[in-house]
Amino acid sequence: MDTRYYMIIIKGEIKTTEVMSCVYDTNVHKWNVKFNNGKSYLYAYMNVEKLTKPDVLNPKSYRISREGREFFDIDAISVFRGRQESYWHICFKDGSERDYHECDLHIAESCLNDKRSADVFQYIKQIAELSNIRNEETGEKLLPKRFDKITYVGNEVALAKYLNPSLLNTGKRGGEYVPIFPFGCNNSQYNAVKNAMENQISVIQGPPGTGKTQTILNIIANILMQDKTVQIVSNNNSATENVYDKLSSPQYNLGFVAATLGSSKNKKTFVEHQDSSYPDFSTWKMSEEFGEMRKKISEQSVRLKEFFDKQEKLAYLRQELSQLVTEQQYFNQYVEESDVNTDNIKCKKMLSSKQWMMLWQECQAISEEKKTIGFWFKIKTFFKYGITHWSFYKQEFSKIITTFQAMYYLSRFQILRDI
């Protein structure tokens, strides 16, 4: 029986390679199955499935693994649809064939099977033809050659999200992530690492000397802590060499965790210089359980973030205070020139800068409408804000506005200075 076109399922088990023929006998309403060993058996209708007309898939568009082991050199894939599940018949380039229950396989489909993604990818390939990035040794254009080799793009990789943005998961992956920082950090680097670990795509940019390499090292550490691998790529080898040099420096002595690849020359050098010169790992032994240590690190990371936030808030307030002092100096000069006496304001209570700002804005609104201070405004300022000196209301309207503005600066300055 040709396994490419037929699939025989008996009592839930794939028996195609063991069966010589499988015919349904309408006289007895049973399946007559003859096996390769010459024996024949009758089976009830529901115990046998004779599947035909499989879906033929392009093996380049799929990544298939079983029990953590990925399949390589796949030549053809046929998928048979049964009553309750599907079955995969896989042919390999060495001539061997295997049958599998779909539920036993881990199957990843290329996003290039989607027309929209395929069209965008084709457009990018055409753009790549215009690039003049070349191999320094051969002069060959690099991008077109690389794109021609890409026949599979998994839905989980970043490129798939660029080809089809609808695949992008805008929510955080796995909820709140608490990062670690063995290479040190500041607040912006903390946020950069945290965002990188929580999102599918993250862009970190900054001028030279702002700590981008340090941020990369911390991202590497967080990925390794999850028992994953990480690939660092760049348009030139010097950028990746910079990361490797930092890892392998005497300060960290972690060069053994990385392989410098990239160009064929780098690969050859890496393979030729493999040796057993690793650090003395006996000094790396932890005195406590990993889970407990991880918990302590997480708690310290949270406290570190709280410290950074307070530090940043304090810096912002100091900057605001500095700006306010400058503004107040200019404004005080204006107040003197305008002959405004702020001591005329007597309050039942100390007003906040926000309340002075409200009074200031209300007066400005009245001024813009070219009105004068009315009876109800006087009542409001008397009872709500406690301004009791009627001599204050006898001032020119422009001086009243200036007075409120001056008091806003005075109260705001006092608050910031107390902080």
C-alpha-based Rg, rounded: 37 Å
Give the averaged pLDDT, no decimals: 81
Distance between the termini: 86 Å
Helical residues, percent:
40-55%
Output the keywords:
single chain; 419 residues; alpha+beta; 12 helices
Q: What report would you give on this structure?
A:
Helix content is 42%, strand content 15%. It is α+β, with helices and mostly antiparallel strands. The strands form four sheets. Strands 7-10-11-12 form a four-stranded antiparallel sheet, with no helix packed on it. A hairpin with a 4-residue loop joins β11 and β12. α4 crosses α5, α5 crosses α6 and α8 packs antiparallel against α12. About 2% of the residues have low confidence.
Summarize it.
The chain has 419 residues and is α+β, with helices and mostly antiparallel strands. Helices cover 42% and strands 15% of the residues.
Please describe the topology of this protein:
Blueprint: E1 6-10, E2 13-14, E3 19-25, E4 30-35, E5 40-44, E6 48-52, E7 55-57, E8 62-66, E9 69-70, E10 74-81, E11 86-92, E12 97-101, E13 106-109, H1 115-128, H2 142-149, H3 158-163, H4 187-198, H5 212-224, H6 237-248, H7 264-272, H8 290-338, H9 353-368, H10 375-383, H11 390-393, H12 397-418
Antiparallel strand pairs: 1-2, 1-6, 3-4, 4-5, 7-10, 8-9, 8-13, 10-11, 11-12
Helix pairs in contact: 4-5, 5-6, 8-12, 9-12
